[in-house]
UniProtKB/TrEMBL annotation:
GO MF assignments: catalytic activity
Pfam family, one: ECH_1
PROSITE patterns tied to this protein: ENOYL_COA_HYDRATASE
Source species taxonomy: Bacteria, Pseudomonadati, Pseudomonadota, Betaproteobacteria, Burkholderiales
CDD domains to which the protein is assigned, alphabetical: crotonase-like
Domain of life of the organism encoding this protein: Bacteria
Recorded family membership: Belongs to the enoyl-CoA hydratase/isomerase family.
InterPro entries: ClpP/crotonase-like_dom_sf (IPR029045), Enoyl-CoA_hyd/isom_CS (IPR018376), Enoyl-CoA_hydra/iso (IPR001753), Enoyl-CoA_hydra_C (IPR014748)
Alphabetical list of SUPFAM superfamilies matching this protein: ClpP/crotonase
Protein name per its UniProtKB record: Enoyl-CoA hydratase
Length: 275
């Protein structure tokens, strides 16, 4: 197996090579926070946006496999970063650019991406998890788009992919209410490709990644490219949703959302939006 020198700049993500050209991308959990879940702080957020460009250029990688370590796939955004975004225009503009790049870089990465999701799957990690070409979840996984609970629009990936995967009615139900979706239910409604028992999650993900890596690379990559034109055609919808999300970070609701999360209580948002 080849070395990982081209990824030497990555400090938050852990990268491991497997046979047949499979690159494992790990979002560390242990020590990330008290819950043992990977949290997308400023550095992690940037690396999650950038890694797909490097994978696309990596001659030794045929397939990327992304997973979380510890108690779950990903815990979502770091509240310290959220607070910076709410109070600092420059930070907000930088994170908007990274959020945009994360979505488009996964879509445009020529190599197929497999995700293996267990436990909670929230935030920037969930973007890659659901935009993966083949998404595999443990039946007990809890997929949550938490944007409206925080007080901002569901913008970082939801509008571009949830209606396509599970239909508009289900997308609105889960996104507007921030309802958790189990891995088993996510497979039933088409939000993920497969749901398996947690003990089978990584063996199944490795099996799928190996099958992709040993198949015709031109056929697989060109099929992915063509199918992802469905997502590219939804680009204006995604761009609008992302702009509205980041407009929300400059508004009053996000401050109450942050306070309620820190105080572990239901939010008490102010009156209706001014439109």
């Amino acid at each position: 197996m080849s070395d990982l020198s081209m990824y030497s700049g990555y400090k938050s993500l852990e990268l491991r090579r497997h046979p047949h050209g499979v690159l494992e991308v790990v979002m560390p959990g242990a020590g990330a926070n008290k819950s043992g879940l990977s949290t997308a702080d400023a550095n992690m957020h940037r690396e999650l946006a950038d890694i797909w460009r490097d994978i696309d250029r990596d001659p030794d990688t045929r397939v990327a496999l992304i997973r979380g370590e510890g108690k779950g796939f990903s815990a979502g955004g770091d509240l310290g970063l959220v607070e910076e975004m709410a109070n600092d225009f420059d930070v907000r503009a930088r994170v908007w650019r990274e959020a945009r790049d994360l979505v488009y870089n996964v879509i445009n990465c020529s190599k197929p991406v497999v995700s293996a999701m267990h436990g909670p799957a929230v935030g920037a990690g969930l973007v890659a998890g659901l935009l993966a070409d083949i998404s595999i979840a443990s039946k007990s996984a809890r997929i949550i788009d938490g944007h409206t609970r925080l007080g901002v629009a569901a913008g970082d990936h939801a509008a571009i992919v949830w209606p396509l995967l599970c239909g508009m009615a289900k997308a609105k139900y889960y996104l507007l209410l921030c309802e958790p979706v189990s891995g088993e239910e996510a497979e039933r409604i088409g939000l993920v490709s497969l749901a398996v028992d947690e003990s089978e999650l990584m063996p199944k993900a490795i099996e799928v990644a190996n099958r992709l890596a040993q198949g015709s690379q031109t056929a697989i990559r060109w099929t992915k490219y063509a199918l992802n034109n469905w997502l590219r055609s939804a680009g204006p919808t995604f761009d609008t949703s992302l702009a509205l999300e980041f407009m929300g970070f400059a508004g009053p609701d996000v401050h109450e959302g942050m306070r309620s999360l820190r105080e572990r209580r239901a939010p008490d948002f102010p009156g209706g939006a001014p439109f």
